[in-house]
From TrEMBL:
Residues 638-711 form the DUF1585 domain. Residues 311-367 form the DUF1595 domain. Signal peptide: none annotated. It comes from marine metagenome. This is Cytochrome c domain-containing protein. Residues 379-506 form the DUF1592 domain. Pfam families: PSCyt3, PSD2, PSD4, PSD5. InterPro entries: DUF1585, DUF1588, DUF1592, DUF1595. Coiled coil: none annotated. Residues 525-623 form the DUF1588 domain.
């Protein structure tokens, strides 16, 4: 948000408020907490009276820096903003009505406050009209970082929620046209803190018709609101531009220009010095030959800035391009800046021109250093730092990594090992777990997956889908930090789940949907193939798919290559039974009777059939939808009898070497940013041989890949 807000008259404010409001009974908030120690929950009437206005603050969840989440009613207390009295969760502040455990009810106008728990970085909460107890509500809600002073009614656009009452709307229609847009600027102390909250954070800030000293006033021509000076209307600049008229926007542009100048201390002092000489420079125009002590100091400062732009651009380009910028490249960047200055653009705008050139370069847009040489050779320490950082963190190197690279010591074996271990322990290494797992096991984009039929499987909600995804990522992150061997991809008897996923898995122990923890699993769960994400992703909308599940196990888990299906083969029915009443098992049996299909389906089908106990969204079931018994028994191509997931896990454990070899192959390719090549053969063979000796621990594997010549060198550019 900009360092100021704008004021509208209340009459016009009410009109703009109604115009921008939506008939929503719920308003969600997603607050970046920053450095706030407490948050204020404000609810006011919607421009009429408060008859029937009942507001619920509910479903609050704090997100913490370590990635954990906790319901707000577990970690904080609801207090009166003025009295400090503690109120009971699940109740109204003015009555005995019982609410959900994580809710608090309030009758506007009023403000409550909550203390921010240690380590919290984000609050997700919603304000809602209590539709069970009223059908006539019109309220405004806001989450603020500072206590809103005063008791005056304030209006703010886009923050109204309704429950059927039309009084606020009716009154707003009779207001006059917007008389003028801008009145003056307001810089509440909340904007001077290190981090603010949302763009509307000072919508209820106190207003007094006094000098705006904190932005360099006094202003000589401040106008009072003749209609209602005590009820101004605060809008963000974005909202002003949306609602104001062309004439108002011209005034806004002038005000912004003045505020930029006034907000800078040297400029304030220059204005006062020139005013003493009878020169009005508030519009930014200074006559040639004008001089003052602070003006000369500013000119010297700009000369100093001019002398440093090359160094600044070099620092930015080195970081953005993940290597040392060449002198010829730097000269081009500086030349672009010089051309902008020569064209009359300001210092700031000219700098931005060059920064944009840096950021649209392929050197920034590609994570791997561009291969511009016609010969192979070792990566520089700077390039190595970048490659390592983007592999493990999917982000730029941190200060320690850059400092080590500057000392030219990063490429040393022991130092490289130390950095790998350090970076894995850092929470940012979760990016490696998510990125690799999504690519290796084929679930990229699952956060928007919507294949299960919503009528048959309404339980597949966005929240459950998100929990499925988080389970897989958390499990991999656990393995990648070396806290368990990679053989747990098959054999694990535990997972990471919240209460919703635990319920989905029918676990005996239950806990809150916002609480994530490691939990033990029964024998019919455990390992990657038994996770709901893979069972769901490899199903059809109306039924499970033994073909998709078996194919996934063979190709993504065991690393076997399958031929493309031949053309002209009838597809399996989309529902659990075809027109002849045959189940999926019978249809697959007919496929295997066809010699053309049998070559692949003899390998695929038995593995998928062993997973038939899990429905299309990964729940355990006892029968098909029509009540017919499940088919979970099958015989593999090599004569192994499978009956359910427990037998399948044994089958996969017997082929553990294949699973690990495939994992190694996929990870080497992922780390190098390319497909595995014949030249990688000896590296792959060595890793496969030595991996069991190192207890199948991922940190060892990562170290070996990072220390390999393939990772430490750049390839020769291919010519086509």
């Amino acid at each position: 948000a900009p360092p100021y807000e704008l004021s509208f008259r209340e009459g016009a404010a009410r009109e703009a408020t109604i115009r921008s409001a939506k008939e929503d009974k719920v308003w969600p908030f997603d607050i970046e907490i920053g450095d706030a120690k407490e948050l204020f929950l404000v609810a006011t009437q919607g421009g009429d009276d408060n008859l029937g206005d009942l507001v619920l603050w509910q479903k609050g969840v704090f997100h913490f820096a370590d990635g954990s989440t906790k319901p707000w009613h577990v970690v904080t207390k609801m207090r009166g903003a003025n009295s400090g009295l503690i109120y009971q969760w699940g109740r109204y502040n003015s009555g005995p009505a019982k609410l959900r455990a994580d809710a608090f009810g309030a009758t506007p106008p009023g403000a409550m406050k909550i203390n921010v728990p240690k380590g919290a970085v984000r609050l997700v909460v919603e304000a809602a009209v209590d539709t069970e107890r009223t059908s006539a509500a019109s309220v405004q809600t806001l989450v603020l970082k500072e206590k809103p002073p005063g008791n005056k009614q304030r209006f703010f656009p886009g923050r109204m929620i309704f429950g059927g009452k039309s009084g606020g709307i009716g009154r707003g229609e009779n207001n006059r046209e917007l008389v003028r847009a801008l009145q003056r600027a307001n810089v509440p102390s909340a904007n001077r803190t290190k981090a603010g909250l949302n763009a509307e954070r000072n919508a209820l800030a106190e207003w007094r018709h006094t000098e705006v000293k904190w932005i360099g006033g006094p202003w000589d021509h401040q106008e009072l609101d003749r209609d209602d000076p005590d009820s101004p209307y605060f809008m963000t600049v974005k909202q002003v531009r949306k609602n104001a008229k062309p004439k108002d926007l011209e005034e806004l542009a002038k005000l912004e220009s003045r505020l930029v100048a006034l907000a800078q201390v040297p400029h304030q002092k220059i204005l006062h010095e020139l005013a003493a000489k009878g020169i009005d420079a508030r519009e930014g125009v200074i006559p040639p030959g004008t001089s003052s002590p602070h003006l000369e100091a500013l000119r010297k400062q700009e000369i100093l800035w001019e002398s440093r732009v090359k160094t600044w651009f070099a620092d930015v380009a080195n970081l953005a391009w993940k290597r040392d910028v060449r002198e010829s490249e730097l000269e081009s960047i500086v030349r672009l800046y010089g051309e902008a200055r020569a064209a009359g653009l300001s210092f700031d705008t000219s700098v931005k021109q060059s920064l944009m050139a840096i950021l649209v370069s392929p050197h920034f847009l590609y994570t791997q250093p561009l291969n511009e040489a016609d010969h192979a050779g070792p990566l520089t320490d700077g390039e190595l730092a970048s490659r390592l950082s983007f592999l493990i963190w999917q982000s730029l190197p941190d200060a320690e990594l850059l400092k080590t690279a500057e000392k030219k010591s990063l490429s040393g074996t022991e130092e490289l090992k130390r950095q790998v271990r350090r970076m894995l322990e850092d929470g940012r290494s979760r990016a490696l777990a998510e990125g690799f797992a999504a690519q290796a096991y084929g679930f990229a984009g699952f956060e928007t997956y919507g294949k299960p039929d919503p009528e048959l499987y309404p339980e597949f909600t966005p929240e459950l889908r998100s929990a499925m995804l988080r389970e897989v990522v958390s499990f991999h992150h656990h393995l990648f930090k070396g806290q368990a061997p990679l053989t747990d991809l098959i054999q694990a008897d535990y997972t990471f789940a919240n209460g919703e996923l635990a319920s989905h898995y029918s676990l005996a122990k239950r806990w809150g949907r916002n609480e994530w923890k490691r939990t033990s699993l029964p024998r019919d769960r455990g390992g990657l193939p038994g996770m709901a994400l893979f069972l769901t992703k490899n199903s059809e909308p109306l039924r499970t798919s033994p073909v998709l599940r078996g194919t996934w196990l063979l190709e993504k888990f065991l690393g076997r290559e399958l031929a493309n299906p031949p053309a002209g083969i009838p597809a399996i029915s989309q529902d659990e039974k075809d027109e002849q009443g045959r189940g999926v098992g019978e249809q697959l049996k007919a496929h295997r009777a066809n010699a053309t299909c049998a070559a692949c389906h003899d390998k695929i089908d038995p593995l998928g059939i062993a997973l038939e106990r899990y429905d299309p969204i990964g729940r355990i079931r006892k029968s098909y939808r029509d009540g017919s018994p499940l088919v979970t028994k099958a015989e593999t191509a090599d004569g192994t009898e499978l009956d359910g997931y427990t037998a399948l896990k044994t089958y996969l454990s017997d082929r553990q070497d294949d699973v690990m070899a495939h994992f190694i192959r996929k990870f080497v390719g992922y780390s190098l940013g390319r497909a595995v090549e014949p030249g990688d053969h000896f590296l792959l063979q060595r890793l496969k041989k030595e991996f069991p000796k190192n207890d199948y621990r991922f940190p060892w594997l990562l170290e070996q890949v990072v220390l390999s010549p393939q990772f430490l060198n750049k390839n020769k550019r291919s010519k086509k």
